[in-house]
Amino acid sequence: MIMANSVGRLCFQNKTILAPMVRVGTLPMRLLALDCGADVVYCEELIDLKMAQCVRVVNDVLETVDFIAPDERVMFRTCSKEKEHVVFQMGTADPERALTVAKLVENDVAAVDVNMGCPKEYSTKGGMGSALLSDPEKIESILNTLVNGISKPVTCKIRILPTLEDTVDLVKRIEKTGVAAIAVHGRMKEERPRHPLHCDYIRAVVESVSIPIIANGGSLELVKTFEDIENFRISTGASSVMIARAAMWNPSIFRQQGVLSTDKVMEEYIKYAVRYDNNPFNTKYCLCQMLRDRVESPFGKQLHAAKTIAEICDVYNMTDFYNKTKVELEARKSAQQSNSDQSENPTLEDDVITMPIRFERRGYPPQITPKMYLLEWSRKEKLDQPAYETEQRTQDRSFQSTVIVADKKYRSTLWEKSKKFAEQAAAIVCLRTLGLPEGRIGEENSGLVNKRKREDKKCVPPDDNESAAPKRHITEMPQEEEEEVVCRTEVVNGVCGQTTH
User: Active site includes 118?
Assistant: First the structure.
């Protein structure tokens, strides 16, 4: 059970913690670790530049919250089961950008962590990860900005410095920023797991500060059983222990009753991967880590050849589970779509007619959009061309557009990832309110579009907005708009799970 202080904030006293691990700390592994007894789980390090471009989307089919990049990849996926337990770890070297990301995710996580210990190039480039250890002023700036800027606890994860004195001095400076805890990997940034762990450094850090210290780095030589976790904590004097490799190999190391067989653990992991539509390559990677020396066996090679979640399930004789879960998700998707259709009734908000509409490009034929239908209808009715007013929301860079037609305003209550999509959503609201066709696939041909020859478009000068040029033919669409495809919530039929960097 998670312990919390008087205001319900996550605390870090006497906890067993799943460490942040690239390509491992995605949703299935975090949920499995919690099932096995972990108190707190860290996600894999996610880079601030990528996260700052993401849009937060509630996925009603999977019952998750997804943070989706402009290329439609799910960068971070979480769910209610882990909300009070998950710590979001970011890679950053910029205080303001770190704050932007923290504000984006803070309502969906229990705490936010800054990676200051990873020595790998993907983390250290741009001054992130262990590169921050040589810039204590920047460390202070980032942590002060986060602590003062968000409501959730802030932590950081560091490696030790070449001298004990420098390590203690750094930790004291970090403590003054107001962070809730510091995770200390007892190796220097040049050292690797084969090098001995410096438990004396961790003990010295514990004795020098009053905030919780989380001991990390003992998996290879010190932690092989659940009992070893407590022994590691006692030997370092730390408040809590963070486990990486040992948990990657078998997350049931968090079980007080003893570890489960690897086969049982992999089966439970696959169930979460299927249930939450995890990226098949990420799923396969994690399973291969659990197989360890069996990865070169005939079974391991069969797993390695699998390219989809369905094929992975076939390798593990879990095809029935896969098919059953797929049917359940498809049924939920259909129900959500039905409920959405029923709820799409116009509502007057101030002087704007609104509906909860999202523009799904795949629902329309190539080179046909609702804006085209609305423009052509306006011309037919001898009305002024539709005028679009668009605003951008600063916290997640999403767009919302209002279209003015015949002195009336129409707007979708849902925010879109781009200005073009926001305008299309506003056009849909107008068309549906007026009972007009919008050009969806399967809709009966209304005759509003395609009545001019497409060859004529060669004579039309390029323009980014079809409503801005009276001579522009209705069958024409800007190339960038033609190529823009969104599949934000179509997770069941192929949106991948979280990505790695």
Answer: yes
